[in-house]
Specification:
The structure holds two protein chains of two kinds. By secondary structure, chain A is an all-alpha fold. In chain A, about 75% of the residues lie in helices and about 0% in strands. Chain A has a single domain, classed as Up-down Bundle (Butyryl-CoA Dehydrogenase, subunit A, domain 3). Chain A contains eight helices and no strands. In chain A, helix 1 (about 10-30) packs across helix 3, helix 5 (about 105-120) crosses helix 8 and helix 6 (about 125-135) crosses helix 8 (about 150-175). The radius of gyration of chain A is 17 Å and the shape is globular. Residues about 85-100 of chain A have low confidence and may be disordered. Chain B has a two-stranded antiparallel sheet with strand order 1-2. The chains are: A mainly alpha, B mainly alpha. The interface of A and B includes residues 12 and 114 of A.
Chain lengths: ~180, ~160
């Protein structure tokens, strides 16, 4: 309530609670670290401006997932022409691992590469479905609320995304190994 | 249940427990007796579900909050801020909404133009003015009047002057 009334310290607490999943969803959907930072920033500015009108009809977390997904998809549409100018997430990860996670297991890095390559084959809308279900672990019902579609549409989108993943998986494995 | 229906169920919910208990038992029984569906289930689990399990979660970069704080403090507060945000939202309307808006506004302009021109035309319709003009002209020719359409016609031509003498 304090955050909705413009109390910056209270809003900072909201940010601390939710920024981790907002950033991770943005990162998986956008696939570029710099883009994910911009999306996260935009999400929290939107949340700050709309917090007063939040009616608690849905959980705050679901509401924030919805804002994150919509912001990420709009961002990708807006910046699709500039894609080749940004640093690829794969490359950013590679450089980060070489500096910060040099002692991490190689299979973890391998898993990250496989996941990001797999997600790269999907459309942004399909990527959102896989991220919400497979990474964030949302139920089909919660996904329907976040995406504002019915549960059958969720199943249909997931089905198409997974069929696509199944068809490209072999190709990724060949390149990775 | 045939293999296609089982494949659909495997793709959307069976492996994740997002399916009715009754259907789950039917599918389980089908898979137990169908080699193709067993292979398909294994492929989905290994290629589509397993790679995402226990995925690494990235830490949030520390400079994001500073950016948010800066952006929020630069925003105009109160009603002015609300109005400016609403106004700026007009320019980020999705393309179909812009198309509908522009079409509607063009239709309104077209209707206004048609109404305006048809309205002024009505005021000078020849149907109302013609009989009067004709009557005045006939009266003038017959010599009952020396004016046409209310105007005194004093400026005769030379031929008029000769005949009037």
């Amino acid at each position: 309530m304090k955050a909705a009334n413009g109390d910056m310290e209270a809003f900072r607490a909201v940010y601390e609670t939710y920024s981790e999943f907002v950033f991770n969803v943005a990162l998986r959907v956008a696939r570029y670290r710099e883009d994910a930072k911009e999306i996260t920033q935009e999400v929290f500015v939107t949340v700050h401006n709309k917090l007063k009108s939040f009616r608690h009809r849905s959980a705050l977390r679901t509401w924030m997932y919805r804002i994150t997904v919509n912001t990420a998809l709009n961002y990708l549409k807006k910046h699709s022409r500039m894609k080749n100018k940004t640093v690829e997430y794969d490359d950013a990860l590679g450089s980060r691992y070489s500096k910060d996670y040099i002692s991490e297991k190689a299979d973890r890095e391998h898993q990250e590469n496989v996941i990001n390559k797999l997600l790269g084959f999907l459309t942004p809308e399909q990527r959102v479905c896989i991220v919400l279900r497979n990474i964030e672990g949302l139920s089909y019902e919660d996904m329907a609320k976040v995406l504002d579609i019915d549960i059958n549409a969720v199943r249909s989108r997931l089905k198409r995304a997974r069929e696509k993943l199944l068809s490209v998986r072999k190709e990724v494995m060949v390149n990775e190994l | 249940m045939n293999c296609k229906q089982v494949h659909n169920a495997i793709l959307t919910g069976y492996c994740e427990g997002e399916i009715a208990e009754k259907d789950k038992e039917t599918i389980k029984a089908h898979i137990a007796g169908c080699v193709e569906c067993r292979k398909f289930e294994a492929a989905i689990v290994n290629s589509v579900l397993e790679p995402f399990r226990g995925v690494n979660r990235e830490k949030v970069p520390s400079d994001i909050w500073a950016g948010i704080h800066k952006q929020l403090s630069e925003q105009p507060a109160g009603l002015a801020g609300y109005l400016s945000r609403s106004f700026s939202r007009l320019f980020v309307l999705p393309r179909p909404a812009l198309l509908v808006l522009s079409s509607v506004s063009m239709c309104v302009v077209a209707v206004c133009l048609v109404y305006f021109f048809s309205g002024t035309g009505k005021r000078v319709t020849s149907a109302e003015s013609k009989p009067d003009e004709q009557m005045q002209y006939i009266a003038y020719v017959m010599g009952f009047s020396d004016s046409i359409n209310g105007k005194i016609t004093q400026d005769y031509t030379d031929i008029d002057k000769i005949f009037s003498r």
